[in-house]
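Internal QA ticket QA-208
Title: Verify multi-chain structure generation after dependency bump
Assignee: T.L.

Test input:
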Amino acid sequence: MNPDIAQVWEWLDQVPDPEIPVISIVDLGIVRGVVWDGDTLEVAVTPTYSGCPATSIISFDIETAMIDRGIKNTRIKTQLAPPWTTDWLSDKGRAKLEEHGIAPPRTTGGPERCPLCKSENVTRISQFGSTPCKAQWRCTDCLEPFDYFKCI
Amino acid sequence: MSTADPYFDFLCRMGDNTLILGHRVSEWCGHSPVLEEDIALANIALDLIGQTQMWLGLAAEVEGKGRTADDLAMLRDVWDFRSALIVEQPNGDFGQTLMRQFLFDTWHLLMLQGLTKSCEPRVAEIAAKAVKEVMYHVERSGDTVIGLGDGTEESHTKIQAALDLMWPYVGELFTPDAVDEAMLAAGIAPDLTEMRKTFEAQVSAVMAEATLTIPDSRFAHKGGKSGFQHTEHLGHLLTNMQWLQRAYPGANW
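Actual output:
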């Protein structure tokens, strides 16, 4: 008897993103579909950035997590379209990012406030940061640099 | 490599451009003038190599001879590469790297925007993914060209020299040949002649803001995208990039 799909989604929501472990891969919005094909679980995953080295680790982590819950056969399907967008980040994920010191993405192209002191006086250092999904910003009040999860 | 299938050739052109430029840009890793630029260049290289996997992966599928994206990247020699001459040009100074990047990025974004309307769904999907990344590339390279051009006397002189050096490599990107014409007729890729008008308007606007002068010449070096005559630089790049497969054929992990 295959576990219920809703149960599988809950399990997937416990798989952390390898680069930003405070959010899950479901929070990140990269799990696009889960279906049973006989006794094989098919998980559709979309890459965040095309060159992101975390992509292959995420597939491996999903398979491992499913084996731990007794699912022997998991197939990862890479799904390119529609392309990933930061609009798919969950509200829970956004809140956790800010708690972790990473400003969540906004369609206006910049962070709302400093994730540390909450000041709205912030300035961009660079569109590119420590991972493909982040940019570097600085707070002009507390003077701390911080990561901004950039909008795509 | 067969040149009988223009669709395969076209996919190799897309993938070889991003592969060769991605490798070139990665050569800056650990050497950039400031940390933020180092990180930006490494990120851009990573995006380009990621896009290469998609283009060359599709090329290998279309070819149907059992080759993979890795085979195409690591086991071909100079004459089989279909990248434009501009991407294999050496990094030179920082200005030269950024000018090459800006000219390529502007072409690349227009090309990808056109390809999102391709009648081949797989091509349109890859383009829709890549276009989001390349919008960031062109924003940054354009800003940096303006910053260097409208900067100090020294930065202005260097980036003007870079523009003079790179300009003759622009024409190849927009000169249609048999492959481009076949792709246009099939509804797979956009019209390069139309694209050039938009390109020139966009580049002229940035150069004006950067106080730089575009050379008054349409002379174009050619031979990269046809594979007919690459510059000597591509061979040197490949000996570095393909070193592992040449020294240890079939090595895997």
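Spot checks passed. Chain B has a mean pLDDT of 96.
Status: verified.
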